[in-house]
Amino acid sequence: MTRIFSGVKPTGHLTLGNYLGAIRQWADVDQHRADALFCVVDLHALTVEHDPGRVRRLSRQAATLLLASGLDPERCTVFVQSHVDEHARLSYLLECVASDGEMRRMIQYKEKSAVEQARGGSVRLSLLTYPVLMAADILAYGAGEVPVGDDQTQHVELTRDLAVRFNQRYGHTFAVPRATRPEVAARVMDLQDPASKMGKSHESGAGIIYLLDEPDVVRKKIMRAVTDSGSEVGYDRAARPGVSNLLEILAACEGGDPEGLSGAYASYGALKKDVADAVVELLRPVRERHQALVADSAYVGDVLRSGAERARGMARPTVDAAYRAMGL
Ligand code: ADP
Q1: Where is ATP annotated to bind (predicted)?
Q2: Per the domain annotation, does 306 fall within a domain?
Q3: Residues paired with residue 179 on neighbouring β-strands, in sequence order
């Protein structure tokens, strides 16, 4: 059975982008067809300035939301990265295989280090090496597939390169994974700034739908979404990013294709109202299950403990083999 690995970073509250670009697919499809691991990658949250208490709270919230979104601990492994030491152990070995140059070519590093510098902060070394830790996350489990949104495909390419290079130098140790992507809404854009993706770490939440937003907040954000000065609803990602983003969100919620849906609307107002209704309905069960799980935190704790134990059992033989292969 194919093994798949994917994760979310607890750097902010989870968004509609995380849900439509990743989590929904994990719950509806991936956990049923494969031996799947889903991880809250909290070590990655330390690569930028953070508040320790907030990271801890967000990790727990993200794990709870994964369960609320339908990940079933009987079918897949849900765990928190820092509970399994193998990630950090393997990351160091892979740092000895990766080169400084290939790290500096990563688009996310360029973008995120520029943001840190603009804030006047120093760029942490871990921000540069973060894709190596991500490679360790994937390779430790021998994952064959990594379902991710477009923004992560470069990191999966790097993971493949590192696996191949390690295997050539030290003998076959790692399976070489490939990225897979969901078909619709692979990239949900910010409602206020449709040129950039809806990302949970953005400063302002006005263009971001959080999974735990109250329904009236969701409606308000969608009704205020930036469109353009045209009057007819039409789908064109490049020329009309705002309205196209809304059409894609609607298509992702209800099925159908964004271009086809555009013909049904005479005004932006009518489109926005339908998008708001669709998103509120989509998120309703997730919010309700989240509430129930928060009230049963012992259950969530048990799930995460047994998830980490199972994950450790899978990762340890591979990481131990990598140690031996490298001469340790
Ligand atoms: P974020 O950018 O929100 O910090 P993560 O690194 O936690 O995202 O990614 C979790 C998953 O969600 C990844 O598979 C990522 O590709 C996906 N994802 C994040 N933002 C979006 C978005 N706006 N549209 C589609 N998918 C997204």
Answers
A1: 9-11, 17-18, 149-151, 188, 197-201
A2: yes
A3: 146
CATH code, 257: 1.10.240.10
Ligand 1 neighbours (beta carbon < 6 A): 6, 8-9, 11, 15, 17-18, 21-22, 148-149, 151-152, 186-188, 197-201
Residue 199 annotated as lining a ligand binding site? yes
Give the CATH number of the domain where residue 117 resides: 3.40.50.620
**Does the annotation place 221 within a ligand binding site?**
no
Give me the phi and psi of 38, to 5 degrees please.
Answer: -125, 130
pLDDT: which is higher, 57 or 233: 57
Indicate the number of domains in the chain. Answer: 2
Q: For the chain, what is the mean pLDDT? A: 94
State pLDDT tens for residues 161-213: 999 999 999 999 999 999 987 655 558 999 999 999 898 877 678 999 999 99
Kindly list the catalytic residues. Answer: 112, 197, 200
Please tell me the distance from the alpha carbon of residue 143 to that of residue 200, in angstroms, as a whole number.
Answer: 26
Backbone angles phi, psi at 181, to 5 degrees: -130, 145
Could you tell me the two tokens for 254?
Answer: 């209800």
* Highest mean predicted confidence (pLDDT) among 58-67, 227-236, 252-261: 58-67
pLDDT tens string 272-288: 999 999 999 999 999 99
Residue 40 phi, psi dihedral angles, 5° rounding:
-90, 110
d(CA 123, CA 48) in angstroms, rounded, equals 8
Which are the contacts of 61, defined by CB distance < 8 A and separation ≥ 6? 10, 13, 14, 212
Instruction: Decide: residue 310, CB within 10 A, 0-12 exposed, 13-18 middle, 19+ buried.
Output: middle
